[in-house]
Design brief:
2 copies of one chain form a homodimer. The first copy, chain A, is α+β, with helices and mostly antiparallel strands. Helices cover 40% and strands 21% of the residues of chain A. Chain A binds a DNA duplex through helix 6.
Chain lengths: 253, 253
DNA sequence: CGGGGAGTTGAATGCAGTCAACAAATGTGG
DNA sequence: CCACATTTGTTGACTGCATTCAACTCCCCG
């Protein structure tokens, strides 16, 4: 892990700002918010950002890269709680002196902007907009979790995998749009089939069978850490989701 | 549904206040908070508190009774998102002019205290403590949802049912404690086996088989709308949960 | 070129769904 | 208060999805 504390890039110029926490804030508040930022950190793939049991004293916004948030279970299993990418807020907790209940690991090389949590708390008192921004993030995460739970509980592996792949694709390509990249060739997809299984409670073997089934139906193309979805509507059908509704749920921050 | 707007009972005297949103607030702030309350409403069993698609303009705290929050799915299925009881906050959303994405139905007779949401928003600006209270609730709901998702995704029906029954029992009996009632005879359990199935994505038939299995092991006694759990630790073992951890997750508001 | 992680395939097992029938409990109207 | 309808709970047989275990291939990296 590398840290830089000086000559930090400017928030105004940040390509991902509108996707991130401060995207909710008017530019006029940006100075105050930016003053909270303490440093930028870079993590290598497979490096932990933090571990279950750590006491969080900084919140982080991902500037670049994919992060997996997960919990270890008995018997060597693990449950992936969230796939996080640029713009996402990590490790923020209102509850005081609580230890954090999950771990976060970098999948790709990851850059984050870190903010001391205490600074947040002090600032919220004088900047109610920050409250609404943060609370809105918490609510959205909660809504996504409920939606995921609903899918997992009620549908089979094919639907679950379709739902997850489509979700990751939508979020990934929304981000490419922001950076004005060409998304027609699919998005970076650095996850293993085991990751997908750990998110859905499936074995990697069964995920593999489902991948092949989806490939045969021309619903996904997935290889070389790349995911392409030719017909989002069609995959949404398999995922038992309304594409418009899903996009609204996922691209909002 | 019956509404009363005058001679509302005093918040200071409310038996469930310490379990509810304002339990987080110091008494000195109570006047301000209480001023937000607009009315008390009473709903009969099977009556909707609100429906998916409604535009929420009031938040509600349950004063008494059990409420089920759910979403209708295709094919006549439904997903129960939350079982709510006295002290729980319903239908609060930071996001403006959003319609609500689930329905709420009374299981028992239910009394709620209603607050215009706009009043909340205005008040938060001058009462940051209210922010921390609300955000803490949103975070807790999110943490519970992740925990439920983890259980559903990774364990079988027996574990899931055990986890849910234990959760409901812990919350129900914590509430009996508050009211100084005798909890030794179990708690009110007004749910059908189909409700349990709808929460976990199981069929009522399979829930029934699991109930019987748990009964044979003397882990639960459940009849006449009453649930008794003699050995919480033992059931927690089946539920693959740490009893202390679970209680911390569930009794906090 | 060898090793390890990721992906692929097949066969056997077991958990949960479906369908169908019935019993028990609850509610309703005569 | 009884007769009947409806909801809830119970049981059995059959089917199908997902796991487990084992073996094997492919690809990347050192």
């Amino acid at each position: 892990m590398k840290t830089i504390t000086h000559n930090l890039p400017k928030c105004e110029d940040c390509a991902i700002r509108k996707m991130a926490l401060f995207g909710e804030l008017e530019t006029k508040y940006l100075d105050k918010a930016r003053a909270l930022r303490s440093c930028q950190m870079t993590f290598q793939p497979d490096e932990y950002l933090y571990r279950e049991g750590d006491a969080p004293n900084t919140a982080m916004t991902i500037h670049d890269g994919w992060v997996i948030l997960f919990k270890d279970l008995e018997g060597g299993k693990r449950q992936i709680l969230r796939f996080a990418l640029a713009g996402d807020l990590l490790s923020y907790k209102t509850g005081n002196n609580d230890i954090i209940d999950h771990s976060a690991i970098a999948v790709t090389e990851v850059t984050v902007c870190a903010f001391p949590i205490q600074g947040f708390k002090d600032t919220i008192a004088e900047l109610p907009e920050l409250f609404f921004a943060i609370n809105s993030i918490t609510e959205i995460l909660s809504a996504r979790c409920l939606s995921t739970m609903t899918t997992i509980a009620n549908y089979n592996a094919e639907t679950n995998v379709a739902y997850l792949l489509l979700s990751l694709y939508i979020r990934g390509s929304a981000h490419c749009d922001t950076l004005n990249q060409d998304k027609m060739d699919g998005i970076l997809f650095p996850f293993t089939q085991e990751d997908i299984g750990d998110a859905l409670g499936l074995t990697a073997i069964h995920v593999n069978r489902v991948f092949q089934k989806l490939r045969k139906q021309d619903l996904i193309e997935c290889n070389n850490k790349n995911l392409r979805i030719a017909d989002e509507e069609k995959l949404a059908g398999v995922a038992q989701a309304d594409l418009g509704e899903l996009k609204r749920l996922l691209v909002a921050i």
